[in-house]
Specification:
By secondary structure, the protein is an alpha+beta fold. It folds into 4 domains: 331 residues, Jelly Rolls (Sandwich), CATH 2.60.120; 75 residues, Hepatocyte Growth Factor; 69 residues, Hepatocyte Growth Factor (3-Layer(bba) Sandwich), CATH 3.50.4.10; 44 residues, no CATH class. Strands 1, 5, 6, 10, 16, 17, 18 and 20 form an 8-stranded antiparallel sheet that branches. It has a 6-stranded antiparallel sheet with strand order 2-9-19-11-12-13. It is globular. The protein starts with 30 loop residues before the first strand and ends with a helix.
């Protein structure tokens, strides 16, 4: 339950025309997974154990039993989901607290496939949710933290063992299929002794370390596959959850390995380095699967640091700085975190953000015999997209990255759309589409060139080339007139009059020629709006020009003779505020991107005032 660092990206080479083979070790082929236990729908809490009282992590919650939790509205169920949340604040002699729940399986399981499918997970300043497993007699019984983060601290998958079940993983075995550094910086040593700074091992990809807002805003599923030889953790976003999970006939060996976010090769590590992990099948004892929401405590409390998007941030930064409260890793009467979350005015914020919405928790175990025939999949995901006729060629490389030669990159969901964008972008002849590469969503890289000699193995990447038919050069267009003679791959910043979605540079130029005060424009194919955009400007001086691939600009645009000139004003772009006065402070790119993201972060969207001229000159498109 611990400290977060940042990690990396997948790597492996697979040719697009080959059958995908498993890079990772898989469960025995003479066995299959069969359902052993589940919690789902209206009966979700029926077979779960409720821990009661204060938690062991020094936080400010009071865990309730099942009947009390139902009565206080801390838990509720429906046909398709179960919810767990924190309750209203109440005062105690040691400071304010809130009710919460900590539930776990009554039975412990050894070697299993466990799956949590969810629609929402908690987040917020001082909020510490967790989905984890633990054996008896910590740390000798083992602990696996699957999804756990606190406040704004990003999450990671980590394993904790004791001296009797010590295990050090082989870096070679962990990273042979994808880059997966030990995010705890322990050189893959899973032995844990916090007093001596030994944190356990945490081999986690970037996809497993996204910030709390991401997990909360993206429904999905987490799967733990633990066998006698290894342990894997998968994360699937909602659109890519395998159908065999819902049908309860899971075949993990057939799942796309790009969804693996953590890998613990116990047996292979000991085979490569005898004595490193001497008892691989017993690295962990039988495990109880647990879900809980803690507030503050030794992680969330010690890391309590209000960001601008947090409710009442400036007020509570002031209280902290004036010494009216102290940042502690435990619950006390003057604890900043506990008193901050103990305000009744935080009820609405926590009710909106600090809750689990769970579709099911299922546990499968291996049984002898072949797997049942898989049911047809509803979601058809092609490993290699069908090339776009006339633009995208049949030269595609799966799990491969074209190194270098980048024009620019942008967020795009599919390789098909990435290829199409390349076909419509000047100078682009190749692309790489990466599912996980440090961005919060799939990213398209447009490139000037790519061949088999420039390919690097990288799981989750699809690369391809674009073939463009030669076209005769258009007749030259006089400067200042629309139809050509533009500044290719050039952006003009500042001096904005207006902006709008528009498909082509010619249309953007025409709009400028018909708009009062417009003497220049920039048309950007992709710049954060998710569609081509036109920016009308007063002028485009050379000192304001910069090279931006995908942008086309024009200067000295002359009015259309006899045309009526339109007047436009600078658009209200808006900002994310957490203040009752609607003042906007600095925030993260995610929260400040748009209104929906702002609401996810707990703020409210404020339409921005028209910028004055000095501000316009500094505004970068």
């Amino acid at each position: 339950m611990k400290i977060v660092f940042f990690a990396a990206i997948p790597a492996l080479v697979l040719a697009s025309n080959e059958t995908q083979k498993n890079c990772y070790e898989v469960a025995p082929s003479n066995k299959h997974y069969a359902l052993a236990w589940k919690a789902q729908g209206k009966h979700f809490f029926d077979d779960l154990h409720f821990t009661t009282g204060a938690g062991k992590t020094g936080g400010s919650v009071n865990y309730l039993d099942k009947n009390s939790a139902f009565q206080h509205g801390i838990i509720n169920t429906s046909k398709h989901s179960a919810k767990m949340r924190v309750g209203k604040a109440f005062n105690t002699a040691s400071g304010p607290r809130r009710h919460s729940v900590k539930v776990g399986t009554k039975k412990r399981f050894k070697h299993f496939l466990g799956v949590l499918k969810y629609k929402h997970v908690p987040f917020g300043l001082g909020v510490w949710p967790a989905f984890w497993t633990v054996g008896k007699n910590w740390p000798e019984g083992g602990e696996l933290d699957v999804l756990e983060y606190a406040s704004h601290e990003g999450q990671q998958v980590s394993l904790h063992t004791g001296a009797k079940n010590h295990c050090k993983l082989s870096a070679h075995e962990v990273t042979k299929c994808m880059e997966m550094p030990d995010s705890n910086g322990m050189d893959y040593n899973c032995y844990t002794n916090y007093g001596k700074g030994q944190l356990g091992c945490a081999p986690t990809t970037f996809a497993g370390q996204r910030p709390p807002e991401y997990w909360s805003d993206h429904p999905g599923a987490l799967a733990i596959e633990w066998t006698e030889r290894f342990l894997k953790v998968y994360y699937f976003d909602e659109a890519n959850i395998p159908d065999d999970l819902d049908s309860e006939t899971p075949t993990p060996e057939a799942w796309d390995e790009k969804w693996i976010i953590s890998y613990f090769p116990f047996a292979a590590s000991n085979e490569e380095h005898p004595g490193w992990c001497p008892n691989p099948e017993n690295v962990m004892g039988p495990q109880q699967l647990i879900l809980n929401i803690e507030l503050c405590g030794d992680w969330a409390g010690s890391k309590w640091q209000p960001w601008d998007q947090d409710p009442y941030a400036s007020e509570w930064r002031g209280k902290r700085d004036r010494g009216e409260c102290k940042v502690h890793g435990y619950h006390t009467g003057n604890d900043c975190c506990g008193n901050y979350l103990g305000q009744s005015k935080m009820d609405k914020y926590l009710d909106k953000h600090a809750f689990f919405d769970i579709s099911y928790l299922k546990i499968f175990q291996l049984k002898s015999g072949p797997a049942p025939e898989p049911k047809p999949m509803r979601r058809r995901r092609r490993s290699v997209p069908v090339p776009t006729p006339g633009t995208c060629t049949k030269t595609w490389w799966e799990d491969s990255d074209c190194d270098g030669k980048d024009l620019f990159n942008t967020k795009i969901d599919s390789a098909n759309d990435c290829c199409e964008l390349c076909g419509n972008t000047s100078g682009c002849t190749a692309f790489t589409h990466n599912v996980f590469d440090g961005h919060l969503s799939p990213t398209c890289y447009l490139k000037t060139h790519c061949s088999s000699s420039t390919l690097l193995g990288k799981r989750g990447c699809t690369s391809g080339t674009v073939e463009k038919a030669p076209t005769p050069p258009p007749p030259p267009t006089p400067a200042g007139m629309c139809g050509g003679n533009y500044l290719e791959n050039t952006d003009c910043y500042g001096g904005d009059i207006s902006n709008m979605a528009m498909d082509s540079a010619d249309d953007c130029c025409k709009e400028c020629s018909e708009t009062d005060g417009c003497g220049a424009f920039t048309h950007n194919v992709v710049d954060g709006h998710g569609k081509p955009y036109c920016y009308l400007k007063k002028s485009c001086k050379k000192s304001k020009q910069s090279r931006v691939y995908g942008a086309t600009s024009g200067d000295g645009i002359t009015p259309v003779p006899g045309a009526r000139r339109r007047r436009r004003t600078n658009p209200n772009k808006g900002c994310c505020s957490w203040a009752s006065s609607n003042v906007c402070g600095k925030t993260t790119d995610y929260c400040g991107a748009n209104g929906p993201n702002c609401e996810v972060c707990g703020g409210h969207w404020v339409p921005g005032a028209t910028l004055d001229e000095s501000e316009e000159e500094d505004l970068i498109v």
